[in-house]
Amino acid sequence: MNKNNIFWIYTHNFTNTGAPLVLADIVRELAENGMRTQLRLISWGGKHDQRHSKLHKELSDEGFSCEILELGELPPTPKLNDRILLNSLAVPEDVVNLAQTWLEQGKISRLDWYAHEANPKIWLPRPDQSKRLKLLLENKNIFLKVPSCLILDRYQSWLGYSGNKLGCQTPKLCIDRKAQVLFDSPRPSFDKLHFQLTAMAGAGQKGHLWLLQVLEQAFAHPDAQQKHLRPIELSFIGLEEGPYAAFTREVIRRGQALLGDSFHWTYHGSKQDALAAMVKANLSVSCSLEETFSLVSAESMALGQPLLRSQTGGWSEQLDPGMNGFDLGLPGPDVRQEHVDLFHQLRDPEIFSNEHLIKMSHAAREKAQAFRSVTYSDWLIGK
Q1: For 318-355, what is each residue's pLDDT tens digit?
Q2: What's the pTM value of the predicted model, to 2 decimals?
Q3: Which of 169, 201, 218 is the last residue of a domain?
Q4: The CATH number of the domain where 144 resides is what?
């Protein structure tokens, strides 16, 4: 890419959530490859929203060009050899249409798209939208990436396209110098079990209430009063104060009722704040109804925490069942007896000894190293 050309990156917001955080890692890597002055980041909406401004300020302070446009505002017209990356299917529809039109009309020579959404039909529901994208993949210089193999299968089925312009780009596990001390901390011990679930509660899709129900039933297990079992603590990290505040309050109320002082929570904040809370736990739970990869699961693995994980996007890349964690099966709202039995058995040191769980902790940390060596440059610069 010529130094005189601009690399435009369009994203739906600058929150400290999945897709924008991956975007931050992408631009930092591109900057390390000498492209800092060529990068232009544009987001839509959230100009007066503090949640949206945190990552925007962080990247701006690092010297990146970041702009927030109002919904309905269109980005500047690029030059022919400028590059455009759409970071998410949730970029405003008029912006997506414009970028595709530029490619169709030859006003840009290449378009890249990183789809972080598990179900493309929610964001591109009309048949003409998927048909248009398929034609572009077949006939134009567009590269569409998704975060995991499970999600790739879903997109291939949706588009009826399995060519090499649709592929998997695993997110990179980036650990900056401030966070490195957390990841270098001693591996957890397991005299007690401290589960953590790190996710905004939303409307319930991340499984907070499901996990509380599992624990409640595990405490009532017929063998629970007959053995010396490990005590349990639970942390919900990154809860939401905004549109879903009422649901968050219900989650906190039920957590306190079940566990008392052994229940902890933090509200949504910076990535550093989340990691500082996560490191206090020794087991990580990912029980969402949908995930495309779950980067927070990879971070938990790097902290030495065995995973309890449902079969959502990223499951096959992260979990070796019985080696670095436990398979919760297909996602769903219902608590099954095997879930209750698993959580009960984890409390029992005669079934899962400290040595066994420490071995799984080592395996989790080792498995996470593969995600640290991921690169975005091969995709975005190498072709």
Answers
A1: 999 999 999 999 998 899 999 999 999 999 999 999 99
A2: 0.91
A3: 169
A4: 3.40.50.2000
